[in-house]
Amino acid sequence: MIEKQVKGSFKGLIPFIVFIIVYLGTGIVLHFQGVELAFYQLPGPVAATVGVLAAFLIFKGKIEDKFVTFLQGCGHQDIITMCIIYLLAGAFASVSKAMGGVDSTVNFGITYIPPHYIAVGLFIIGAFISTATGTSVGAIVALGPIAVGLGEKSGIPMPLILASVMGGAMFGDNLSVISDTTIAATKTQGVAMRDKFRINLFIAAPAAILTLALLFIFGKPDVVPQALAHDYTLIKILPYIFVLVMALIGINVFVVLASGVILSGIIGLIYGNFTLLEFGKEIYNGFTGMNEIFLLSMLTGGMALMVTKEGGVQWVIEKIQNMVVGKKSAKFGIGMLVALTDIAVANNTVAIIVNGEIAKQLSGKYDVDLRESAAILDIFSCIAQGAIPYGAQMLILLGFTNNGVSPAQLIPLLWYQMLLGVFTIGYIMVPKVSNLVLNFINKNTVSKKIEETPDFE
């Protein structure tokens, strides 16, 4: 966002620090008061507003100039693009769920899980639901109660059952083209979702395959439960597949999501899941469901530009430079920044938004491909989010067991998150692998552009 180089200043970073302290501090206080989901009681936009007010109070200059800078940040093309995608993604998720897409997906998977491979099947179903809907929390809410019931009947240790659901949910959260983490990572770095997905999948697929192997070996039930059959409609799963395929082909994300909303709406109208008026209301429900992340993105966008102009981002970069000696350490620096931020605020999307500009500037300085920085931002934030005991995913999942499983029992079994971290580190440490993946993406991108070029002869 800033073209000219500014002098680094710790003072410039204070608004971000205020934002994190307010967000984190409130969660800690409420946690010790015994409030459920303590870290999610204070809406992110409120904490961000406190940070913005801090910027207006401590930064020098005319109030009018500071306000102009703030509005420029709020209205930056990348921020507005990100916000509109959030709205469309919310609409798609809401309409698809209302027409029975989530229920059909879960029921289809449960019906065809081989009873011997419950843990493996739960990971796969969780991964598909999360990838299709763009939310790990949604996947956990939909699948969690069923998983607990299957675990109780099968004799498989409940922590392993829950770990398989958590792993699958975080797999999809990290990779989904409509996940708010993917949207934030790609838009803050200015890269195409398809390219980030390819790099991300190259790293995540081996981790997922090894996780499935471990679940296959250690997740065999003592008692094979009776196969469960549930009602499902295959056509109601179609919109999720449609959106995923179209996005990966490279169709404009606005067209993909709008088409997905329409397709889900048509299916819902045909099956009588809602009327035309109710269809419109579901679209709006999807919009309102994204209000918090929409407002948070705008407010932090404005705050980020003020912080950047004041030298806060440059100050962080200068300090990181003491540890960064090249491209590899720059990638590790980006990953550690976003992971530590997520541990602090317990929200992977917030962590990405806060560190997006820093990651972009670090990438430019140390020649890190922005598609890689987008993938690293998303991966490290999801690893942290999928493991912290006070994260929404962990709290909701453990809540289905009625305090029967503790985070200490579950965390050592989060094999997918651990393996994802290992493969990401390996990707960073072996430049030949990184170059191979980027060359593959570049070759296919160039080929696609040549195919799309009209012939005027």
What features would you describe in this structure?
- This protein has 457 residues and is mostly helical.
- The protein has one domain (10-446).
- It is built from 22 helices and no strands.
- The longest helix is centred in the middle third of the chain and has 26 residues, at 193-218.
- The chain starts with 13 loop residues before the first helix and ends in a 5-residue tail after the last helix.
- Keywords: Antiport, Cell membrane, Membrane, Transmembrane, Transmembrane helix, Transport.
What are the secondary-structure elements, in order, as H or E?
A: HHHHHHHHHHHHHHHHHHHHHH
- Domain unit count: 1
Count the helices. How many?
22
Radius of gyration computed on alpha carbons: 22 Å
Principal-axis shape equals globular
Most strands sheet: none
The beta-strand count equals 0
Helix content: over 70%
Helix and strand composition category: mainly alpha
Mean pLDDT, to the nearest integer, reads: 86
Task: Tell me the β content.
Answer: under 5%
Low-confidence stretches: 446-457
In whole angstroms, how far apart are the ends?
A: 41 Å
Give the key terms.
single chain; 457 residues; mainly alpha; 22 helices; membrane; cell membrane; transport; NhaC_Na-H+_Antiporter; transmembrane
Characterize this entry briefly.
The protein is mostly helical and 457 residues long. The chain has 22 helices and no strands.
Please outline the helices and strands.
Elements: H1 14-32, H2 44-58, H3 63-74, H4 77-98, H5 101-112, H6 118-133, H7 136-154, H8 158-175, H9 180-189, H10 193-218, H11 238-249, H12 253-270, H13 276-289, H14 291-309, H15 312-320, H16 327-345, H17 348-365, H18 370-385, H19 392-399, H20 407-410, H21 415-429, H22 431-452
